[in-house]
Write a structure and sequence with these properties.
By secondary structure, the protein is an all-alpha fold. The chain has two domains: 55 residues; 66 residues. It is 76% helix and 0% strand. It has five helices and no strands. Helix 4 packs antiparallel against helix 5. It is elongated, with a radius of gyration of 18 Å. The mean pLDDT is 80.
Length: 121
Amino acid sequence: MMFFVNEIPAVGHGRETARMLRGSTPHDQLLIQISDSFAGLLLFVIGFLLFMVAFVKDRAFQVFFAKGCILLHVSMGLWRLYFERRIEHVARDWPRQLAGDFILSLSWLLFLVYSWREKYD
């Protein structure tokens, strides 16, 4: 990702929108690069956290973690619904991303249902 900074947004948003999202001034471009760096760091931390949680044997902690992930995906969906759809350059992408957030929260919900079934059988 870090070597293809200009190509990654073109995959998600298209070439014209990606060109507009790059920023018009050097200050804007620097802010966007810093934001991308923090987003990459956040993805690494989330992956590392999921890797650590996968080895926890405590069922109560995994249920707590799954509830937190559901809350995170629902709040991200609400963010997309109320704020991202107002940004004209990414307005056509928010329904697809909202569906992705819904599917990810549904996967965590299915994990909760499976763990409840295992607990009460």
